[in-house]
Specification:
Number of strands: 6
Number of helices: 2
CATH architecture: 2-Layer Sandwich
CATH class: Alpha Beta
Number of domains: 1
Shape: elongated
Largest sheet: 3 strands, mixed
CATH topology: hypothetical protein PF0899 fold
Helix content: 25-40%
Strand order of the largest sheet: 2-1-6
Distance between the termini: 32 Å
Strand content: 25-35%
Order of helices and strands: HEHEEEEE
Length: 113
């Protein structure tokens, strides 16, 4: 379950930023996660909740925006959203596709007091 280590990293980063700026409480953490990131969102939320229980982030909402998988055809150069794992260019039907986004995970913002 790598979600535990990911949740710990998110919490550590959020706490560090909040403490550096003198905040007392973290109300929410907003993430953007690509659909190909390999992150199971509900497991991540559970792990974050457990890890944050005794911190200034206790009861903080963990909000996740899932980002689409974007591909670029290496033959015609067209960029497009990919559905599931059938990577085919909708323009020229080529299967030589470069994934240009959808694997990322980033902390977008936090709400604090």
């Amino acid at each position: 379950m790598h979600e535990l280590s990911v949740a710990q990293s998110i919490l550590d980063s959020a706490l560090r930023h909040a403490e550096e700026r003198g905040f007392q409480r973290i109300l929410s953490v907003h993430l953007k996660i690509g659909r190909l990131s390999g992150i199971e969102v509900e497991s991540l939320r559970f792990c974050f909740e457990v890890l944050s229980a005794e911190t200034m982030a206790r009861s903080a909402d963990l909000t996740v925006d899932l980002l689409p998988i974007r591909g670029k055809c290496r033959q015609c150069g067209r960029e497009f959203n990919l559905e599931e794992v059938d990577f085919v260019c909708p323009g020229c039907h080529n299967r030589d596709i470069e994934v240009v986004s959808g694997t990322e995970m980033l902390m977008d913002k936090m709400e604090v007091e």
